[in-house]
Amino acid sequence: MTALISHPARPLAGAAAVPGDKSISHRALILGALAVGETRIAGLLASDDVLATAAAVRALGAQAEQDDNGDWRVYGRGVGGLAEPQGVLDMGNSGTAARLLMGVVATHPFTATLAGDKSLSVRPMERVMTPLSLMGAQFTTRSGGCLPITVTGAPSPVPITYELPVASAQIKSAVLLAGLNTPGRTTVIEPQPTRDHTERMLGHFGAEVVIVEKPGAPGGGGAKEITLTGQPELTGAEVTVPGDISSAAFPLVAALLVPDSKITLTGVGVNPLRMGLIETLKEMGAVLSIDNRRNEGGEPVADLTVVTSGLKGVTVSGRRAPTMIDEYPVLAVAAACAQGVTRLEGLGELRVKESDRLDAIVRGLTAAGIEATATDDVLTVKGGGGPPPGGARIETRLDHRIAMAFLVLGMVAETPIEIDDATTIDTSFPDFAGLMNGLGAAVAARQGG
Ligand code: S3P
């Protein structure tokens, strides 16, 4: 365990490129492994989570390697062509890797066992096992339906129409990936739209995906019906991975809060289904511009510039939660520095992320002298409109986003914030401290820690 301390920062200034999008990186490796021929991936996030997916697709018989210029090349086995792995697939800390690969294995006629770290081993997996069982897969789990899990794929998979009981791109993606090696049409109905990277990338690799959008409900996007035609021939493709907006969130909020800052983050993915944080920060009063919009490999990309802004508290409905589900820890830090009360609704899913994030946020903020409370699914934070006291040691609970959010709090608080374990940051944002310090932050290893 490496403890880190974040001291009040100098004004943040300059430009930086955040690492590649984690969701898109997992999907590029998985679809590359299911395609025929070469897939070349530029900008892949080489973090612990994504490296777990790379190791898993290799164990399933695909080739996946980084070449000398930093791009990744994947040589796939074709839809339905993966092979039984010899050992256990170690998914580390990654819920996305575990759930998406359970979907892939569910319709291959062999048996595989998936395991993960202490955090992943208590996260709910029934949510993917339920639809995948309907398609014919069989599962043996530890008690409570948790990892390690052994999956025996269906020898004759059946297509299903499945309505998501929770707004989760991971469940949607597991079903669609299982649908690839299933004859006929597999349909997922999502009452609340979630990130659509799987659908976009399936199209990019040559699958037929039809999306029907239902009329929008007041205050939010409408339901979607996504239908995949099974057993397509996927062809290896070129993928450019945009910068991860969920990683950009940390320097972005830091620059909004540290006095006299102005930074630009280049090449950030701005998929509309990931834009909830930007919309919310703008409602809070953030001065933020989105420039140089372009399209890279089927995903919208832009440069984001932010300057220090006085923020005010807001109420955010749960309708927006799927479009910013990973950003609540750092949004709570912004709320702690805003003027007035911020109320964030519909956050039940935060209780089953890498940690119980609602609890981790409330405990951390409280330890740093900030008033914060949570019900089952509503977080309320009272901001004082200036630097909060700080001076706390935060338990990160194997949760990278809790670790980074509280380091951001340390940049703006009156006294430093310490986190007990920084190693988990490598799951999504290797060199977070280096990038932040390059912009003006002061994040350092604790002496003797
Ligand atoms: C992800 C979807 C989200 C998100 C996770 C990545 C994905 O989870 O929290 O970090 O890549 O599909 P849910 O879809 O389960 O909410």
Radius of gyration: 21 Å
Ligands and ions found: shikimate-3-phosphate
Query: What is the highest CATH level, the class of the largest domain?
Result: Alpha Beta
CATH superfamily of the largest domain, called what?
Answer: Enolpyruvate transferase domain
CATH architecture of the largest domain: Alpha-beta prism
Low-confidence stretches: none
Which fold name corresponds to the CATH topology of the largest domain? Answer: UDP-n-acetylglucosamine1-carboxyvinyl-transferase, Chain
Quaternary form: single chain
Order of adjacent strands in the largest pleated sheet: 22-23-1-24
Number of domains: 2
Average pLDDT, all residues: 97
User: What proportion of the residues is helical, as a percent range?
Assistant: 25-40%
Taken from the alpha-carbon principal axes, the silhouette is globular
What structural category do the secondary elements indicate? alpha/beta
How is the main sheet built? 4 strands, mixed
End-to-end span in angstroms?
Answer: 8 Å
Which percent range describes the beta-strand content?
Answer: 25-35%
Give me the count of strands: 24
What's the tally of helices? 12
List keywords for this structure.
alpha/beta; four-stranded mixed sheet; UDP-n-acetylglucosamine1-carboxyvinyl-transferase, Chain; 24 strands; 2 domains; 449 residues
Quick structural overview:
This protein is 29% helix and 26% strand. Strands 22-23-1-24 form a four-stranded mixed beta sheet. A four-stranded mixed beta sheet has the order 2-15-17-16.
Please, could you describe this protein's structure?
The protein is α/β, with parallel strands linked by helices and 449 residues long. The protein has 2 domains: 220 residues, UDP-n-acetylglucosamine1-carboxyvinyl-transferase, Chain (Alpha-beta prism), CATH 3.65.10.10; 207 residues, UDP-n-acetylglucosamine1-carboxyvinyl-transferase, Chain, CATH 3.65.10. The strands form 6 sheets. A 4-stranded mixed sheet has the order 22-23-1-24. The chain has a 4-stranded mixed sheet with strand order 2-15-17-16. A 4-stranded mixed sheet has the order 4-5-3-14. Helix 7 runs parallel beside helix 11 and helix 9 runs parallel beside helix 10. The chain is globular and about 60 Å long. It starts with a strand and ends with a strand. The structure holds shikimate-3-phosphate (S3P). The site of shikimate-3-phosphate has 11 residues, from helix 5.
